[in-house]
Write a structure and sequence with these properties.
three-stranded antiparallel beta sheet, about 90 residues, 2 helices
Length: about 90
Amino acid sequence: MARYRKKPVEVEAMQWDGTAAGAGPIIDWILANGPRAARYNDNPALGQPGICINTLEGTMTATTGDWIIRGVQDEFYPCKPDIFEATYDPA
């Protein structure tokens, strides 16, 4: 089996604080970068608020503390804080 290392790439990312006010700039950022869908969802049935983002793999929901990343193909997706910290360093 061969081994591979991720290529070093820079991405843009914003961390969500879990508030409706904090969701606004993230949603604006996503919508300003093409025909994508993102919305704030404060449905009590979810147990916590979320930002629903249409990704290449379907709709994903970011929760409080998640990072929202703009990837190398201009796609957006949420990432849990522990994965983000293990994967990314400030540029």
